[in-house]
Amino acid sequence: MNIDCGKRSPFTIGVLIVFTYMNFPPQLQQKIEKWASSQGISTEQFILQAITEKIDTLSQ
Questions:
Q1: Long-range contact set of residues 34-38: C-beta below 8 Å, sequence gap at least 24
Q2: Distance between CA 18 and CA 14 in Å, rounded?
Q3: CA atoms of 48 and 15, how far apart (whole Å)
Q4: DSSP state of 39
Q5: Phi, psi of 36 (to 5 degrees)
Q6: What does the pLDDT look like over 14-60, one tens digit per residue?
């Protein structure tokens, strides 16, 4: 696998790797891509936001 790291943070690169290797069910992957697209963000950004929101919720 060759991931273009560009100027991405190590955390973002980690999310890319997880997204690639987690083998999300196709239906879930489609939903992630749909929601990310509807918000005008990448799937990586969507996953980062979802994780951040979940951690914030659990931390309260």
A1: none
A2: 6
A3: 7
A4: T
A5: -60, -45
A6: 666 666 667 778 898 889 889 999 999 888 888 889 988 999 999 99
